Amino acid sequence: MTTWSQLREVQPVATRMLQNSIVKNRIAHAYLFHGPKGTGKEKASLLFAMRYFCENVEDGSSYPCHECSSCKRIQSGNHPDLHLIKPEGQSIKKDQIGYLQKEYTYTGLESNQKVYILYEAEKMTTNAANRLLKFLEEPSRQTIAILITENMGSVLNTILSRCQRIQFHPLKDHDLYEQFAKTGVPESTARIFAALNIDLNQGEGLSQDSWFAEARRIVIQLIDKVMNPKEEGYLFLHQVWLNHFQERHQQELGIDLLLLWYQDLISYHLDRHHMIVLTDQQDKLEQYQYAISLSEAKTCVYELLQTKRKLAYNVHNTLAMEHLVLQLQR
User: Fold this and answer.
1) Cα separation of 272 and 25, whole Å?
2) Is 2 a residue whose pLDDT tops 90?
3) Which CB contacts under 8 angstroms, 24+ apart, belong to 152-159?
């Protein structure tokens, strides 16, 4: 479990704001944690909840003990008065917020204190957002709501106005890389995780997952197919790619890995070799810089970003990838 001290190394401003609100007893009834993926929003929300429920907290301290029953149950994900709301499918629905409102009417199982963490708040349906708004307009003194989002612009202004906003800034690639290196993640993999802003826990899991190793191999194979007019990129897409990248988060990661490769090719064209992420692919980058111009590489990056947007708007993965392969095919 991350500590405040560890979080402060990468998010000093957000950490200081949260700790000060605890020490000065100025805890808001609702917070909005906003910022890019992998910047510590979820960790901060759990730390905040842990401190709120901690049974051994010292007066004037913002640090939970990490040892009491409440702290341990939050770490294991089974505290009865901490409720986590996540999207069901592609959205957070009205009934989920209705459940939240219903829970608010009950006394806490162990005290009157309650904490609710709403993940991916930008994915609320209109009905869910309106229901949450009514819910926030009548705050309980001992109840805290924490909304987490990567896209604050997609959250209703009326909801934003009722939350204290805490911004989580993008991590510097070098700082994130150093964190992964300390955990023993291989250098080439650590560079990828840092470039994609993958958080430490997720990265450690991926680095030990054979699925990710295979994903990296398949990405390079697809590039070889589309760069060679004699190869069947379309056939490879259906026989291999689509079978491996099935879930939405896997599809997005596959696109991100392709983006890294083409961004590295652009860096190679511009003689910015120090910016290359996929350092184990330098031979291929040197080979393919003669097959694809700088302008064409930039066009490929544009097509990849468009594909990411299509997936975000629920365009069918197969259709989106078929179009992408046709655009990348040399």
Assistant:
1) 50
2) no
3) 152/32, 152/34, 152/122, 154/122, 155/32, 155/121, 155/122, 155/124, 155/129, 156/129, 156/130, 158/133, 159/32, 159/121, 159/129, 159/132, 159/133
Q: Is 209-328 in the same CATH topology as 4-167?
A: no
- Give the model confidence (pLDDT) of 299-314 as tens digits: 999 999 999 999 988 8
The three-class DSSP label of residue 328 is: helix
Task: Pick the closest to residue 116 from 182, 102, 313 (CA basis).
Answer: 102
Q: Give pTM, 2 decimals.
A: 0.65
Torsion angle in degrees (nearest 10) through CA of 282, 203, 148, 98: 130
Q: What is the C-alpha radius of gyration for the chain, rounded to an integer number of angstroms?
A: 23
Asked if residue 103 lies in contact with residue 95, where contact means CB atoms within 8 angstroms, the answer is no
CATH number of 4-167: 3.40.50.300
Find tokens 């468009």 and name the residue: 306
Question: CA–CA separation, 155 vs 176, rounded Å?
Answer: 28
Going from N- to C-terminal start, the domains of the chain cover: 4-167, 209-328
CATH code of domain 209-328: 1.20.272
